Amino acid sequence: MGGTGPFGRALAMRLHAAGDDVVLGSRDRARAKEAAAELGVEGAVNEVSVRGVELVVLATNAGAMLETARALPLAAPALSVASELRSDEPVSLAERLAEAVDVPILAGLHSLAAGKLSDEPPDEDAFVCGDPRAKQPALELADVLVGGRAVDAGPLENSRALEAMTAVILNVNREYGITAGLRLTGFP
Question: What is the CATH number of domain 6-176?
Answer without folding.
Answer: 3.40.50.720
